[in-house]
Design brief:
By secondary structure, the protein is an all-alpha fold. Helix content is 61%, strand content 0%. The protein has one domain. The protein has helices spanning 11-17, 21-34, 40-47, 51-60, 69-81. Helix 2 (21-34) runs antiparallel to helix 3 (40-47) and helix 3 (40-47) crosses helix 4. The protein starts with 10 loop residues before the first helix and ends with a helix.
Length: 85
Amino acid sequence: MSDSVTFELPKFVLDSARLTVPELKVELAVLLYQQRRLSIGKARELAGMTLWQFRQLLASRQIGPHYGIDEYREDVETLRELGLL
């Protein structure tokens, strides 16, 4: 990440939640993805994971991919352009 924002979080919050800073980033990334506030690419970047690792984490928590009608239409168009449909 090139730009960053720093904020203070009392240590007791991490201690009470039994989380490290990297674990907190993962939890934040999952929550923001689940709420559709971050794309999977941005969420996995925040979590410090590869796309594969992040998808595995989401699957383990039974959080489905965000795949709507617009993405479906884009995929169909791409397949048509490639001559696969």
